[in-house]
């Protein structure tokens, strides 16, 4: 069996691993937030959820939508749409031997932007707070994609 | 050209590759299930789909939603929301030289939980079947994230 | 610090990196398309967006849905549902030492199919253009999954 720990001795890769784990854990928190609002506000998407979690004869009336729940779900979907490209492009970028401090700057900006995006979406803060957070994270990912395609294009 | 097969000689990584391929294939099956219900129940989201697959003069009436189709779509989105973190965190965890049997236990529990989640969503089974399957998969991913951040944090 | 550039000297991996970066950048373009239609058509999902981007006293009336925006969002979600499996399965496939020309054929077909899928969805082209593009990309991913499970199964 080959020892793979050397990959984790690469500092850029370790930094990528840490920031990715943090941003993915943040995204997973959105599921809990959705579940929390669904249970406290009694807003369900499935009849079987009403029956168990919305006790009472008229449970079916809890089969509805709610502004708060929909807001969390939109924030969650936006996370997915932006973290998936970061995951793929960031992994390949980390393996393309970038400068350590440049790489860490990219990762920090992205993770910061996504956390701020979530805060701006859930409070909600007035626009353009959320839009700026979105475009910062977007720009960071594009910057890594550009670096990758410029130096390692192979079609 | 460098030979990369040594990465695939690492047993943890091979196990991760196998379980990931299985759980992603399962997720892809959801697309087929959606297509199946859309075609058999004549429920479409786009006018051009009605025109081709819902033959007849009054095809436009098939531009509607359907409980069954929406249920499959919710299960699919839930898969996405949970399998993406598993993909990222699990990959990094696999490269961080974990104990083989612990790693395989994590992968098996996650894949089992997601398959059971799909079954519980599509039949549907009464709650809390689906909720427990969800939280088992969620906990497995968090456990890998915790292991990763504790041993390899680099910010 | 270990030098990881040798991974990027592997031709299959470099090709995977290039095609993945392209297809993820294409997916990110969908966010811009959604934002473009939301702003030009004044169709918002959040009250705070109306207040800032849909100026006027009766901004609240812009809190609505729109066929064009929903179409882009469906195309975006379909991208997510298909590119995530490609990302995971394709990465593992690339590391399993496949034949270079076979691998590049897979990547090219997938990226071509997804770009054509987006065009067919957004114009929109009559069916079965979009359905064929979808199933081509789907088949490519399944073909890589099959290759991976046949040669490297470890459960």
UniProtKB/TrEMBL annotation, chains A, B, C:
<keyword id="KW-0256">Endoplasmic reticulum</keyword>
<feature type="transmembrane region" description="Helical">
    <location>
        <begin position="131"/>
        <end position="149"/>
    </location>
</feature>
<dbReference type="GO" id="GO:0005741">
    <property type="term" value="C:mitochondrial outer membrane"/>
</dbReference>
<feature type="transmembrane region" description="Helical">
    <location>
        <begin position="83"/>
        <end position="111"/>
    </location>
</feature>
<dbReference type="GO" id="GO:0005789">
    <property type="term" value="C:endoplasmic reticulum membrane"/>
</dbReference>
<keyword id="KW-0472">Membrane</keyword>
<dbReference type="Pfam" id="PF01124">
    <property type="entry name" value="MAPEG"/>
</dbReference>
<dbReference type="GO" id="GO:0004364">
    <property type="term" value="F:glutathione transferase activity"/>
</dbReference>
<keyword id="KW-1000">Mitochondrion outer membrane</keyword>
<comment type="similarity">
    <text>Belongs to the MAPEG family.</text>
</comment>
<keyword id="KW-1133">Transmembrane helix</keyword>
<comment type="subunit">
    <text>Homotrimer; The trimer binds only one molecule of glutathione.</text>
</comment>
<comment type="function">
    <text>Conjugation of reduced glutathione to a wide number of exogenous and endogenous hydrophobic electrophiles.</text>
</comment>
<dbReference type="InterPro" id="IPR001129">
    <property type="entry name" value="Membr-assoc_MAPEG"/>
</dbReference>
<feature type="transmembrane region" description="Helical">
    <location>
        <begin position="12"/>
        <end position="37"/>
    </location>
</feature>
<keyword id="KW-0812">Transmembrane</keyword>
<keyword id="KW-0007">Acetylation</keyword>
<dbReference type="InterPro" id="IPR023352">
    <property type="entry name" value="MAPEG-like_dom_sf"/>
</dbReference>
<keyword id="KW-0496">Mitochondrion</keyword>
<keyword id="KW-0808">Transferase</keyword>
<dbReference type="InterPro" id="IPR040162">
    <property type="entry name" value="MGST1-like"/>
</dbReference>
<protein>
    <recommendedName>
        <fullName>Microsomal glutathione S-transferase 1</fullName>
        <ecNumber>2.5.1.18</ecNumber>
    </recommendedName>
</protein>
């Amino acid at each position: 069996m080959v020892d793979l720990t050397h990959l984790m001795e690469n500092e850029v890769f370790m930094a990528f691993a840490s920031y990715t784990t943090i941003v993915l854990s943040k995204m997973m928190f959105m599921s809990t937030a959705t579940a929390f609002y669904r249970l406290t506000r009694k807003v369900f998407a499935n009849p079987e959820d009403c029956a168990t979690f919305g006790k009472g004869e008229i449970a079916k009336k809890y089969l509805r939508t709610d502004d708060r729940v929909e807001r969390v779900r939109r924030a969650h979907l936006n996370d997915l749409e932006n973290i998936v490209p970061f995951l793929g492009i960031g992994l390949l970028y980390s393996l393309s031997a970038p400068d350590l401090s440049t790489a860490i700057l990219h990762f920090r900006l992205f993770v910061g932007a996504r956390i701020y995006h979530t805060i701006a979406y859930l409070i909600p803060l007035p626009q353009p707070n959320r839009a700026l957070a979105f475009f910062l994270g977007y720009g960071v990912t594009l910057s890594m994609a550009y670096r990758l395609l410029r130096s390692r294009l192979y079609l």
